């Protein structure tokens, strides 16, 4: 018999009314649950002792609350509603549009569904099986389908009308789960036979926005009101604190509490006259709302203490070494079939197994194409790292990102009109380390590596490493050294 059970309650779109959340938390408190968490799909999570489960289940059934125990057969619907209004995107999306989409679901999806504003980077685009992303056309959405247990994503034909999203999702799910269709053309044909829905042709392709995770904690102004972001380092919120939050929301006419994929909360619509009351609650429960920005950009698996512990170790290393991580987000994956969102992915795997028992775990480091976490293409950076070596290699990857961004910015700043480009003459091609920017110039060779002058880069041994940071020869990139032709004699 299990000593403890994991309970999951969906909050569709990451939205909960204070009254509904209060009922759930009160039932949990009566079953001796003292802390809860919010998952990476914006769901509510808690752990209860087996002796208290019957009381919890009894109260949930009385309240009509759908829940799952030790399973996730009905994944929560993820949405970017938590950032609506507070992180301005200039899109046509508003609160009523999100609610129209969520209201169109008259069933509990068995597939993962994501509802995303195409101009934001606060919530993930493609971590669902059915990924609806707003198009430039008001009230119409792109649909990108990711087949079960694959990393393959394909675009659905046409743009889907807002009020049709729930109906279409239900039919697509029936075809995928009940009929077992797992091929693009067969799935589209089966859906076309079953349903007619409102759509229009797509005039342009989806453009992924550049990633920049906004600072989502503390008191922040928007329009004439304030929103409050709440993050906990251990990813746990005490029920006593959340009950006080619900009570103050009800008292001050705040109608919604939003959960985020970063396992945090956002409370919108705080009026100025109640700002002090909110500060008092934070003080009463000793809630810190000013963590370092590099601590907020991590996603770990649900119900996983190992991932959270590793996250905190790496954050301490970054803080000690004053490592710049702006523009990056990190995902830690310790289970083979789980999914996390990040531009840098840390994957744990066993080096050896005895039966089902893993021994001597190692870590693989990946980064996404252009370091955009919404990209599905992943690039291997280092493989088979022991835990002791992981922080330094992760810092090296951060340096590579910063150097790449600096080069891209410099290229943009130094872009010249055609007349000026004609006055630039290529001097020679050299190779540069992307991590520390050290240049290998065949004219000079490498004295530290016993490489004589005149040795072409192609003739260097495969074991050649950067003399500054030890990066391998394979990662060096060719660059052109140029000089202005008006500095040379005619």
Automatic annotation (TrEMBL):
Protein name: Rubredoxin
An example molecular function term from Gene Ontology annotations: iron ion binding
Species whose genome carries this gene: Dyadobacter jiangsuensis
Gene Ontology terms describing biological process: alkane catabolic process
Domain Rubredoxin-like positions: 428-479
Transmembrane spans: none
PANTHER family in the cross-refs: RUBREDOXIN, RUBREDOXIN-1-RELATED
Gene3D superfamilies: 2.20.28.10
Domain of life the protein comes from: Bacteria
Keywords on record: Electron transport, Iron, Metal-binding, Transport
Keyword Amino-acid biosynthesis in annotation: no
Cofactor (UniProt): Fe(3+)
Pfam families the UniProt entry points to: Rubredoxin
């Amino acid at each position: 018999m299990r000593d403890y059970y994991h309970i999951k309650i969906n909050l569709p779109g990451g939205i909960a009314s204070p009254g509904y959340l209060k009922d759930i938390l009160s039932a949990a408190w009566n079953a001796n649950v003292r802390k809860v968490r919010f998952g990476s799909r914006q769901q509510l999570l808690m752990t209860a002792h087996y002796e208290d489960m019957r009381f919890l289940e009894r109260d949930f059934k009385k309240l009509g609350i759908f829940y799952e125990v030790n399973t996730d057969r009905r994944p929560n619907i993820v949405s970017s509603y938590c950032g609506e209004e507070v992180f301005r995107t200039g899109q046509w999306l508003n609160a009523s549009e999100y609610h129209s989409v969520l209201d169109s679901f008259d069933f509990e999806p068995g597939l993962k569904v994501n509802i995303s504003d195409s101009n934001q980077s606060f919530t993930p685009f493609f971590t669902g099986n059915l990924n609806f992303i707003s198009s430039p056309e008001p009230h119409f959405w792109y649909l990108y389908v990711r087949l079960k247990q694959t990393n393959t994503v394909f675009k659905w034909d046409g743009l889907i009308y807002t009020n049709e999203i729930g109906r279409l999702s239900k039919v697509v799910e029936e075809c995928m789960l009940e009929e077992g269709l797992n091929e693009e053309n067969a799935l589209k044909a089966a859906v076309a036979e079953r349903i007619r829905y409102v759509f229009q042709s797509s005039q342009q392709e989806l453009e992924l926005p550049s990633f920049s995770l906004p600072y989502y904690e503390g008191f922040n102004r928007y329009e004439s009101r304030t929103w409050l972001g709440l993050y906990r380092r251990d990813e746990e919120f005490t029920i006593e604190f959340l009950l006080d939050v619900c009570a103050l929301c009800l008292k001050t006419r705040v109608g919604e509490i939003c959960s985020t994929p970063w396992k945090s909360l956002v409370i919108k619509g705080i009026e100025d006259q109640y700002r002090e009351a909110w500060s008092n609650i934070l003080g009463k429960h000793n809630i810190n709302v000013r963590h370092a920005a590099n601590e907020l950009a991590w996603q770990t698996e649900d119900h996983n203490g190992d991932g959270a512990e590793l996250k905190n170790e790496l954050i301490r290393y970054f803080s000690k070494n004053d490592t710049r991580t702006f523009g990056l987000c990190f995902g830690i994956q310790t289970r083979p079939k789980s999914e996390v969102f990040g531009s840098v992915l840390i994957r744990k795997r066993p080096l050896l197994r005895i039966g089902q028992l893993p021994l001597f775990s190692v870590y693989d480091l990946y980064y996404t194409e252009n370091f955009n976490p919404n990209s599905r293409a992943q690039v291997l950076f280092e493989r088979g790292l022991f835990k002791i070596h992981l922080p330094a290699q992760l810092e090296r990857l951060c340096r590579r990102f910063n150097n790449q961004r600096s080069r891209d910015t410099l290229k943009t700043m130094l872009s010249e009109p055609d007349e000026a480009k004609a006055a630039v003459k290529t001097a020679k091609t050299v190779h540069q380390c992307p991590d520390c920017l050290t240049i290998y110039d065949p004219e000079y060779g490498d004295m530290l590596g016993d490489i004589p002058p005149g040795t072409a880069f192609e003739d260097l041994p495969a074991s050649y490493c950067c003399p500054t940071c030890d990066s391998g020869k394979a990662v060096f990139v060719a660059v052109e050294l140029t000089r202005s032709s008006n500095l040379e004699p005619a």
